[in-house]
Amino acid sequence: MKYLHVPYLFILFASFFIATTGFSQNDSLRAKIEKISVSAKGIVGVAVIGIEKLDTMSFNGNKKFPMQSVYKFPLALAVLHQVDKGKFSLKQLITLKKEDLLPNTWSPLRDKYPGGNVKITLDELIAVTVSRSDNNGCDILFRLIGGPKIVNKYIHDLGIKEIAITTTEAEMHKDWETQYTNWCSPRAMGKLLSMFYQGKILSKESSKYLYEVMVKTTTASKKLKGLLPEGTIVAHKSGLSGSNEKGILAASNDVGIVTLPDGNHFVIAVFVSNSTADESSCDTVIAGIAKIVWDWNLNH
Fold first, then answer.
1. CA atoms of 230 and 289, how far apart (whole Å)
2. Calpha distance 267→47 (Å, rounded)
3. Angle (CA) 223 226 228, round 5°
4. Phi, psi angles (nearest 5°) of residue 58
5. Which of 18, 36, 94, 234 is 20 to 30 A (C-alpha) from 61?
6. Catalytic residues
7. pTM of the shown model
8. Contact 253, 275 (CB under 8 A)
9. Domains in the chain and their CATH numbers?
10. Which sign, positive or negative, has the C-alpha torsion 261, 16, 216, 221?
11. What is the pLDDT of residue 143?
């Protein structure tokens, strides 16, 4: 993982304003994204940032989208910030109580330790929460750090304002509407990913650690990675709500950092909300958008 020595204010400027060159100059790129987005039968938001070239582009980039499990990425940033400060250690042991491992939720952690009452390292807890999107692991991390409000303040203090982290996974599971209180704009998530990759948030060691955890993500293989060449390195975090009784899929998301064949990178955040299409169709839209951006990069 390499870090660029680019003035920080310039990076922020490039992330938030449409440049006069690159992605923003290519109307056909945005038109292709808009065309494929129709298949989602909902609201689609996209933000793209070229790390080395500092190109930016967005489509519905300022709209609010429910994050679902994408918010486990900023949660991991907040926890690792405390590791950097010496409050926590990746090697420290965390006790998993039986009552921590709730049923009826996605949890490889519970499946591995069904009886609870075991100790695991913080390393394992972060890894299973991010790379396998464990919901129980997520809420254990929230309790460890002091709750969603602590994470929300930390991310806001980084300068990322268009984001709200308000509730736990358990709280989201109790009420359909609650998920909409955990939201972000595609541009805000793109900026957060860019800052992370540039080494502007965590120590070099913690940045490398989280990046590698995200590369090992096993969920959402048909989203951002779905149409990219086999072996493409994508450090990403996905999110999915499932559909309600009316057939509305509130959130199908994937955000990450893609490595191009020439060694350059681009950040991409794709959010689909309030879709009447099925999960597979939304996956195809997200994969298609990632492929459009990939192809554009190879030809410019």
1. 17
2. 8
3. 125
4. -145, 155
5. 234
6. 69, 169
7. 0.91
8. no
9. 8-298 (3.40.710.10)
10. negative
11. 98
